[in-house]
Design a protein that fits this description.
This protein is 39% helix and 11% strand. By secondary structure, the protein is α/β, with parallel strands linked by helices. The protein has a four-stranded parallel sheet, sandwiched between helices. The chain has a three-stranded parallel sheet with strand order 4-6-8. It has a two-stranded parallel ribbon with strand order 1-9. The two termini are 26 Å apart.
Length: 275
């Protein structure tokens, strides 16, 4: 039986670099966190159960009792990308919610149906895998393509809104709290600056300087599919300069350092490809 090619390929990735740079590449690699499908499912279960943990979920989010009461008749809907696409991670996580949390398929709604449910006062649980800047959720929350938005309906009706995500940056969660304070944000892992490239600036300035030069040296070899990655040094530091070090088996955030996931020239081998 032929074994499938691994999703993550550290040996091939290390070979992209000149011998003198492989130690720096290895130091980047040891900071990289990879969530395979089993771990991703565990994160989803934990994030969902955290709805009832009693911790604060947002500046004006409902308390534990109200959140628990909302679960009995809530609908689930994916968080769409800033340019909505059927392959967005939110759709995948909704399917996993049905499969591993035994959520009835009738409770899973596309955005238009979820808007109708919200207008009738039904609680809505938004599902996604990652909160980076928070902009992706806020786009879904404020989108008026159908003539109204979740934000407007909430202002009128006051339905319970819960956002379940697996991993989130502290800055992204704060952004949502500032612009959608009534939304209950439930995540398993929160990433602060220590989990990013920028955390090295204070903890190990010398290593940060070396890695920054390393990234600048190899970035010109990267060839991303998405044109927006060529602006504002996103190709060096990730989308909106988040400088993250992680990936899921099913997807890689564009906020993760592109040197890990991007295709490139001269037989460049991504550590894990972002498809």
């Amino acid at each position: 039986m032929w074994l499938p090619e691994p999703t993550i390929r550290p040996r091939a990735w290390i070979e992209n670099f000149e011998n003198g740079d492989k130690i720096l590449a290895a130091q980047l690699l040891e900071r990289f966190v990879f969530y395979n499908q089993r771990l991703t499912d565990s994160l989803l279960i934990t994030s969902f159960y955290s709805i009832a943990d009693g911790l604060e979920k947002g500046p004006a989010a409902p308390g534990r009792l109200n959140l628990l009461q909302a679960l009995s008749n809530a609908v689930f809907t994916p968080v769409s990308g800033e340019e909505p696409n059927p392959t967005d991670s939110g759709y995948f996580l909704c399917r996993r919610t049905r499969q591993i949390l035994n959520v009835d398929e009738t409770q899973i709604k596309v955005s238009r149906e979820a808007l109708e449910a919200a207008a009738n006062g039904c609680p809505v649980i938004f599902v996604d895998d990652f909160i980076g800047s928070g902009d992706q959720f806020l786009t879904t929350w404020q989108d008026k393509t159908t003539g109204t938005s979740f934000e407007e309906i909430h202002r009128k009706v006051g339905f319970t809104a819960i956002y379940v995500s697996l991993v989130g940056t502290v800055s992204g969660i704060t952004n949502i709290g500032n612009k959608a304070p009534s939304v209950a944000v439930c995540v398993t892992h929160r990433i602060d600056s220590r989990g990013t490239l920028w955390g090295l600036q204070s903890s190990n300035p010398q290593l940060y300087s070396q890695i920054d030069s390393f990234l600048s040296k190899y970035t010109p070899r990267l060839t991303p599919h998405n044109s927006y990655m060529y602006q504002c040094q996103y190709l060096t530091y990730g989308y909106k300069h988040r400088g993250l070090f992680f990936a899921f088996e099913h997807s890689v955030p564009d906020a993760t350092l592109p040197i890990f996931w991007c295709r490139g020239t001269n037989n460049w081998e991504p550590l894990i490809e972002r498809t």
